Amino acid sequence: MWKVLSEHIDLKTRLLRQRIGAFESKWGITFERFSERCEAGTLGQDPYAYEVESDFWEWEKAKTLLRHYEALQARWM
Length: 77
Fold this sequence. Notes:
Elements: H1 2-27, H2 31-40, H3 50-76
């Protein structure tokens, strides 16, 4: 059972890192910088535009889930 769980967590973290990497490539910055620029209004786009908000929430979700899975790995593996 531990092997299945370990492989599942490895798969999830790999996919989340790819997702985060795709956002970093798309916007050319890290999520932290993206968030700062959205808040400051210096992103170059309307921070309330659908694409910006949608990417923000999806990116934040990926970062949060990655931290969660990494914490599980650290505790269980």
